[in-house]
Amino acid sequence: MAKGPVDRRKPYVRIADELRRDIASGVYPVGDTLPPGARLAHQHGVSGMTISNAIAVLREEGLVTTRQGARGATVIATPDTQDANETTPERSEEFRLLFTQLQDIRGQLRRLATRLDDLDERTKDL
Hints:
One of its GO terms (biological process) is negative regulation of DNA-templated transcription. This protein has 126 residues and is mostly helical. The protein is 59% helix and 3% strand. It has a two-stranded antiparallel sheet with strand order 1-2. Helix 2 crosses helix 3. It starts with 10 loop residues before the first helix and ends with a helix.
């Protein structure tokens, strides 16, 4: 039995991609709320922190917004409309450098959050 290629991306990246596709296809249209994190975590067999990281990716992309106490993230744009509405002003080299550094920091924070979540899971019963 031949298996397809193994998806080696981080779970939160795969989940963010899946949710992005669902938003783009209209499963979750603009104005709708994504399912609560606990339900998504159960559905994907991952921790709540992994779901939080996936939602953070979509929030950074401007696709969803979250509010404390809300049951889920609200869809505010679709990937295609977001790209269509984006204007591409000339950006300075300094802006590009800062933006790249910010993306690196965000990636490091996501990795640290995932590691902390893993440690929390391992030490839960101690």
